[in-house]
Amino acid sequence: MARRSPRRCPRPRRGGASFVTIISGKQMCRVLEQRGWTLARINGSHHIYRHAATRRRTVVPVHANQDLKPGTQRGIMRDAGLTDDDL
């Protein structure tokens, strides 16, 4: 019986990826508060923010002033309606 090699996922394409200015969780909290978001509650190291007008919610991980990972930061920015210029 021949041994089969494991299946591999195709490599993701990176065409047109936009780079974002990396900031920490604490800095993201400050930006959100300046834009009208209020801290609703804290669950461990995750700060849950709500916007009064739109009732939207976003979660910001605050881990000892470490930088947010790019995908996490983009997700928070998308939820909050922020652009790279807002940072």
Could you characterize what this model shows?
The protein contains two helices and three strands. The protein starts with 24 loop residues before the first helix and ends in a 7-residue tail after the last helix. Strands 1-2-3 form a three-stranded antiparallel sheet. It is globular. It has one domain (25-86): Hypothetical protein (Metal Transport, Frataxin, Chain A), CATH 3.30.920. By secondary structure, the protein is an alpha+beta fold.
Give me some keywords for this one.
87 residues, alpha+beta, Metal Transport, Frataxin, Chain A, three-stranded antiparallel sheet, 21% strand
Topology:
Layout: H1 25-34, E1 37-43, E2 46-51, E3 57-61, H2 70-80
Antiparallel strand pairs: 1-2, 2-3
What's the CATH class, please?
A: Alpha Beta
Number of discrete helical segments: 2
Per CATH, the superfamily is Hypothetical protein
- Morphology: globular
Number of β-strand runs: 3
Q: Can you summarize this structure?
A:
With 87 residues, the chain is an alpha+beta fold.
